[in-house]
Each structure stands twice: as C-alpha cells, then as structure tokens.
Amino acid sequence: MSELLVVGSVAFDTLHNALGTHEKVIGGSATYASIAASFYAPVKLVGVVGTDFPDAMVQKLRERGVDTSGLEVAEGQTFHWEGKYTDDLTSRESLRTDLNVFADFDPKIPEAFRDAPYVMLGNIAPELQISVLDQIRQPKLVVADTMNFWIDGALDALKRLLKRVNVLVINEEEARQLSGKHHMIQVANALLEMGPSTVVIKQGEYGAWLFAGEDVFSAPAFLLEAQDPTGAGDTFAGGFLGYVAAKDSVDPKTLRSAVIHGSALASFCVEGIGPARLLEIDRAAIDQRVSAFRSLVDFAHA
Amino acid sequence: MSELLVVGSVAFDTLHNALGTHEKVIGGSATYASIAASFYAPVKLVGVVGTDFPDAMVQKLRERGVDTSGLEVAEGQTFHWEGKYTDDLTSRESLRTDLNVFADFDPKIPEAFRDAPYVMLGNIAPELQISVLDQIRQPKLVVADTMNFWIDGALDALKRLLKRVNVLVINEEEARQLSGKHHMIQVANALLEMGPSTVVIKQGEYGAWLFAGEDVFSAPAFLLEAQDPTGAGDTFAGGFLGYVAAKDSVDPKTLRSAVIHGSALASFCVEGIGPARLLEIDRAAIDQRVSAFRSLVDFAHA
C-alpha cells in the first residue's frame, strides 16, 4: 500500500433538488476525493477553507486516515457553490459561486507531502494543477480531473497540464468538447495524443470507458434511484486512485478494477445528499457493490 | 436446437450517409432478423415482396437455412424506405416511405409454421403482430419489436399486444416514451407491468439493458467506426432469438448470452452498408466478437 496526495477545493454547497433545499452541505472536489480514497490508502489533503469551516468535519477526515496538515485555514469564508438540479438529475444550473478564500488559493505542498507517489489533481484551474506538479518530486501516477469551464477559459494551460498527467478523468460531453470529435474511439485517441497514457471517460447513467494504452474497458452503470449527484465525479476519481495506491500498481488490470471501485463509490455517493452516504458505508459494503457490478455484466460464453 | 418464425417487413432501402447514396439496398425488419437468426437455428420467414424483388436474394436466404415458403410475392412493388443519416450516425430523417405491396400485408402463417416455438414479431403494426399470434398454436417465447410510430398512433393495440408478448425489445427513447418514465429502473418496471416478463432496452452507442424478471444484465457497447446503422435493431432481435432457439432455453443465463450474441451481430451489421457485412461473416467471427465483448467488461475482483 502506498499513500496519495489529493489537491482540490473544499467547500460548502447549497443544493436544490426534488427532495428540497439543502444548505451548508460539505462539498468540494478534494473533500469527496479524499473521503473516497480513504477507504483504500492513507490520504494527504491540500486545500483551503475559511474560519467558518467546522472543526468537526476536519476531525472526521482525520479519523479516516486523511492527513489534514496541508489544509490551510485562511481568514474569511469557505468557498460556496449553489446549484439547482432538474428533477431527473441529468442536468444542473449553477446559481451562485462565491470563491471566498478559494480566490487566492495557491497550493503549497508541505515538504512531507512532496514524495507522494500518487497524486490526484482535483478539478481546479489548470495553472494551479501545474503548480502542484512543480512541487512534487517523482510521482508514479498523476490523475487529473477537469471541466468545461477550463476547456473554455484556460485551454492553453490545460494542454500544458495534460502533457504531464498520466490519467485524465473527464466526462463524455467535456471529452467531446476537448477533443473536437464525436465518436468514442476518435475522442479517446485525440485525448491520448494530448499526453495522458490513460483516459477515463465518464458517461453518468451510461457507465464509463477506460482507455489505458491499447487496453479498452467498459464499466457498466449501476442502476439506482439517485438523490444527489454532487461530487460523484470527484468520488469516482478518489476511489480510482485510492485503489491504485492500495495495489501500488498501474498495470491495465489494476486500472480496470480501479474503475469499478471508483464507480462503486460514486454509486454510493449519489444515494445520499452531499457526502452523507459515503460517510456511512464501510469497505465491506464497497466490496459487496463491486460484486454486484460483476453480476451485472456476467455472461456465459458458450 | 429449435426453429423460429420471423414475421416482418422485407424492403428496398435508399440510404444517404457520409459515404454517399446507396440505392436498392435490401432491407426490412424480417430480412435483417432472419439473416441474424440463421447463424443459430432454422428460420421460417413470413413477409411480402413485390415482383421486383430479386430471386437471387431469396435464394441467398434459402441457402442460409431460411424457409421462404411464407414469403408472399404480390403484384406490384416492394416496400421502399428512403432515409438520410447525420454524419455522426446518431439520428436519421425519413425522406420517403412507399408501402407498395406492404400496404395490404395481412400475414398468413402457413400451416407448417404454426407450431413454431420461438416467434419474432418484427417492427410492424401491432394489429398485424396480434394477428400473427392468433395463428400460432403454443409458442414458447414471443419477442416483439416496436417503434415510436406505433406508440404515437396505435397505443391501444400495442398495449393489447404486450399482454401476449414474453420479450419486448425496444430502444431507450421509445422505452421512455411508452413508460412515461425517465429513470431506467422505473422505465423497466413500467414496461414489465404492461405484460412482458422480459424487457431489452437498447441504448445504441451505450449498449443495452436486459430485465428478465428479477435479473438485471448490462451489455456493453462495442466501439467501432460504424458505416450504416440501418437494421441494427432488427439484427439484434434476430440474433437474440436465434441464440435462444438454438439453446432451446429461456432461463436468465441464456437470455444474458443471447443479448451479447444479438449485440455482436448488430456490431457487424453497422460495419457495412445494409446487410452486406452480415452476409460476409461466419459463426467463428461471431464467437470471436463475443469473446471481445467479454474482454471489454472483464475485471479482477480482488
């Protein structure tokens, strides 16, 4: 087992969905990714919160084996995002984004974290993701998440970042946008040419594709009645890299299983509001769900 | 091994796509389904063509073990459909539909076909599908395909049909339309309540779901550069039922493998214009592709 570094946002979310309005929900890419990864391996978290962020939550992360010594507490308020989901949860609208202390976030990787072999660059500005990589000595595997906001507004930086990333985790629509292609094989090839040796394309209610060099793997969707998809992508990425760190291997076989573990964690994530459900489950529940994923795709060859 | 009856349309298609315009392409739901099923079991075909339909094609079907004695030749022209696909092949527009001899199609099931244990009701008017069932003595498994045209225009007949059908094969959009639900679990439950004990929901470039009573199975999509999706759904259904007939079993395990065989055949279908590619391949090629489907979803559990 090896440790992993998670860098990203820590936030309060206000979520509007069919079940009502949920305020001061703990959110952020680094939060979800850390919780997910902590089921598998020791996590080192780097992020920033305001003085309003609850100590109890930081304590909860510590109890899960997350080293929070890289979580800066800055004067001011924690990053706040407010969004409204459609009733079928297939799309959402951002109502309000208050960057607050996150506006000046300039990730400083503590000396003790710079030898981390596995690095998760949560969905933040590509320039910041690059600055994190500049501070890491010799990572074995760097995973980066991104989104349409950066493809639209920071494409050059994103392209520079991709040359230094091993695994790009991206959703289907954004993969099409970034590659300029429609067909999945062409999309994957275009993204692989941008630098990463591995691309994971998340398709939400349709599962995910893993392109690891020549290896192609299809992960099924898990059917359930979702409550809240917030953080599912970050949870996927954290579970994926947590599993890889635990196995300390980056061969395609490990990556395939890592995609299923990431998917299993994401399936739990959406079952509750915010990270609530993730904070309830244990490793046995995850393994049981991984078995359910296997049953879902199993067929006799004859 | 057991035999199967296929009832549906036999047609000429004119297809416009990125590769050009293709005229007098052999088409129709019964044609694709028969070709696909013929890889597995003896097929009895019921349909109608005009005097312009080429004998050579009928001969080709016979050589594949398709009994064409139920293929009526009527005075006039064969059913003709003309359609234009978008360059990414994800949608199409019907430019022209000339029913011709198909306008008066009233399927007469020859006496020798009425004991067929496996029945494929291709995508034709639900009233005609019901009339076919009225002529069959004791089918073991009835598979029906349908489309938005009948959901819009013949919903009552379709609902009566569904009470007598064991397996409904339907695409995702039409499944949502027919069930009035969005979420896949709710969609499947609503369709199962309409009568069939098994529902297959085809998701095109996202694979397919099989709901067989309590059993839920996810079939992956197969990534390839498609040329022409015409007939892929009919090919899927024919391959599915052909496999079931060959195994002479309707247990969920058999149905799971049948979905993969149907998917494998559909993946070949789209690789050529019309049924061209299907007419080239052999059973070994299919089995090889089934293995490729398995590799696509295989992962280690540990």
Describe the structure.
- Two copies of one chain form a homodimer.
- Chain A is α/β, with parallel strands linked by helices.
- Chain A has one domain (4-297): Ribokinase (UDP-N-acetylmuramoyl-L-alanine:D-glutamate ligase, 3-Layer(aba) Sandwich), CATH 3.40.1190.
- Helix content of chain A is 36%, strand content 26%.
- In chain A, the strands form two sheets. A nine-stranded mixed β-sheet of chain A has the order 5-4-1-8-9-10-11-12-13, sandwiched between helices. The first copy, chain A, has a four-stranded mixed β-sheet with strand order 3-2-6-7.
- In chain A, strand 12 and strand 13 (215-219) form a beta hairpin.
- In chain A, helix 1 runs parallel beside helix 8 (232-247), helix 3 runs parallel beside helix 5 and helix 9 (252-269) crosses helix 10.
- Chain A is globular, with a radius of gyration of 18 Å.
- Chain A starts with a strand and ends in a 5-residue tail after the last helix.
- The model of chain A has no long low-confidence stretch (mean pLDDT 96).
- Chain A binds chain B through residues 88, 90, 182-185, 203, 205-207, 209, 216-221, 223-225, 253, 256-257, 259-260, 290-291, 294, 296-302, and chain B through 88, 90, 182-185, 203, 205-207, 209, 216-221, 223-225, 253, 256-257, 259-260, 290-291, 294, 296-302.
